[in-house]
Design a protein that fits this description.
Blueprint lengths: L1 H8 L8 E7 L13 H17 L4 H19 L7 E7 L4 E7 L6 E5 L5 H9 L3 E6 L3 E8 L2 E4 L3 E2 L15 H30 L3 E6 L4 H7 L2 H4 L2 E5 L8 H32 L4 E3 L1 H9 L3 E7 L6 H13 L3 E5 L3 H5 L3 E5 L12
Parallel strand pairs: 5-9, 9-10, 12-13
Antiparallel strand pairs: 1-2, 1-4, 2-3, 5-6, 6-7, 6-8, 11-14, 12-14
Helix pairs in contact: 1-10, 5-6
């Protein structure tokens, strides 16, 4: 999705407009037709409204109608029933058609503009970055990849039961047996650590979440490389190792949401300290936008509830994506609201040149 965000951010304004669609595809919980997805009703109504503004004819209308038909065809023929959210960015006349399916709902929004509206896509990337999940015991490791709220189970690892062959007529050597068991446990931990690292690199994961018992965790943590250990969050195993994928998904989603909230407050506090120290931080819309335009920004920080119009929010995200800055969408942070709801952590300071002396 990061690549999609960057491609969309790099689009230049043109004669033909881009259609940005975000849909909540969850069935209605109440009403006469509980199976109806409200997002599809919003899509139909908004497409009709937008089409009226483009009448009676012209290339803008032709491009829009092609986009509307293609989006509806995608929904009818390709959208999985499990999808809770859908984002589409389309402009037939400019060869643009980008789709994002999500296991979490978007806020319903259908807009036509010179550039795509990118805020909700950036928020999805921030909230649901790829996580490698391990449910681990001493001799099993079930590995999952969670992205955009969707959980996919990968091939797991299982150690063969450890047998100790006792020689007839001789008592077992307890010390040797315990060493034998420990060696097997350590070797299995190293194998699991290698597979976790491979998945992190392959999936470009930004977080590793391990749920395991008190016996399994120490050797596995010790076997992880320092780079992976820095990404890792360890939790007690509160589920059966044979739990269904949906059970794992629910448990992991709660833990990831909690970690994301903690990260939100940490980044807002970091920004506040940087601004107070007149260091690598700026606050307010104008200063933040200027820093983005100069390529100074390392992390753009936006309060989810900041009262900005959609075009302004999308422009901030576009500038961040095209300059390689991360975007953090923060919730419920008094520190960030004190700064006006918008700010940025900087890679470097850019001081304006002093005026010429008279």
């Amino acid at each position: 999705m990061r690549e999609q965000l960057r491609r969309l951010a790099e689009l230049e304004p043109g004669d033909l407009p881009v259609l940005s669609v975000y849909l909540d595809l969850r069935p209605q919980a109440t009403g006469e037709n509980p199976a109806v997805r409200s997002g599809l009703i919003v899509l139909k109504d908004r497409l009709r409204q937008i089409e009226k503004t483009l009448l009676p004819r012209g290339p803008r209308l032709d491009s829009f109608r092609t986009d509307a038909e293609r989006i509806q065809r995608y929904i009818d023929e390709h959208l999985p029933a499990s999808a809770q959210g859908l984002a589409v960015f389309a402009c037939a006349g400019r060869g643009v058609f980008e789709v994002v399916e999500s296991a979490v709902a978007f806020d319903n929004e259908v807009a036509l503009g010179a550039l795509p509206d990118l805020f909700q896509l950036a928020r999805l990337i921030d909230d649901y970055e790829t996580v490698v999940v391990g449910v681990v015991t001493s001799n099993t490791a079930r590995l999952f990849v969670m992205r955009a709220g969707q959980m996919e189970e990968k091939a797991g690892l299982r150690d063969d039961p450890i047998h100790y062959t006792q020689t007839r007529g001789r008592p077992p050597n307890v010390t040797r047996y315990q060493r034998h068991v420990a060696n097997h446990r350590d070797e299995f931990a190293r194998e699991a650590a290698r597979e976790i690292e491979r998945l992190v690199d392959e999936e470009r994961a930004v977080r590793v979440l391990l749920a395991g018992n008190a016996v399994a965790m120490p050797p596995l943590q010790a076997a992880l490389s320092p780079r992976i250990r820095d990404l890792t969050q360890v939790e007690p195993l509160r589920m059966d190792r044979r739990a269904l994928r949906d059970e794992v998904t629910r448990a992991v989603a709660d833990l990831v949401a909690q970690s994301e909230m903690e990260d939100d407050h940490a980044i807002a506090d970091q920004l506040l300290e940087a601004v107070q120290a007149d260091g690598l931080g700026v606050d307010g819309l104008e200063r933040t936008k200027t820093a983005l335009e100069h390529g100074q920004v390392d992390v753009l920080v936006i309060d989810e509830e900041v009262p900005l119009d959609s075009a302004t929010r999308s422009e901030l995200v576009r500038l961040a994506a095209t300059t390689g800055a991360d975007v953090e969408v923060v919730r419920q942070s008094e520190a960030l609201r004190e700064l006006g709801g918008v700010g940025a952590l900087l890679r470097y300071k850019h001081d304006a040149p002093a005026p010429n002396a008279l």
